Amino acid sequence: MVAIKDLALSALLMSSALAFPFQNPFKIANLPKPGEKPVPGGSPVSICDSTQPQLLTLKELVMTPNPPERGANLTISGTGFLKETVDDGAYVDVDVSYGYIKLLHQTFDLCEEVSEVDLKCPVKAGAYEITKEVEIPAQVPPGKYVVYARAYTKDDDLIACITGSVEFTPNGVIKFDLDA
């Protein structure tokens, strides 16, 4: 559970499909869902609520290895541009689902979380390049996990909304699916 939260928050800090746990047998191409926009870099992360103004523009997000492996470290590297300074009081709402089951709905203090990537509040406006390593536990149960993370300023302005989906199959193979 901690690794999934870390994945979501790490991707968001660098900026971490969807509601249905089955695949569309009629899909022709990996097209983004309405309101979603893939992040360059080949990761399974998309910008959600993309029609809404967001203070963070993710330029690229790269995950190594891609796809992630159980029991291995996952390195997430991202670049982006923050349009305004983020002060104490900013927060992140994180939802993690396993199929139809919501595993986590929690609000985190963004200023506490940015310390994981050697930043501190206030986070000044400007360009950022961040790398974070997280461990994927070997005991991750098979199934599809969906993460939504929405970060807000203390005044409730949207900093960023990211989403992603990863499926751990019973035989250990991991499959990304951006269009469930």
From TrEMBL:
GO biological process: intracellular sterol transport
GO CC annotations on file: fungal-type vacuole lumen
Record-linked Pfam families: E1_DerP2_DerF2
Keyword Zinc: no
Residue intervals of the MD-2-related lipid-recognition domain: 45-166
Signal peptide as annotated in the record: 1-19
Gene Ontology molecular functions: phosphatidylcholine binding; phosphatidylinositol binding; phosphatidylserine binding; sterol binding
Oligomer and partners: Monomer.
Family (UniProt): Belongs to the NPC2 family.
Protein's UniProt name: Phosphatidylglycerol/phosphatidylinositol transfer protein
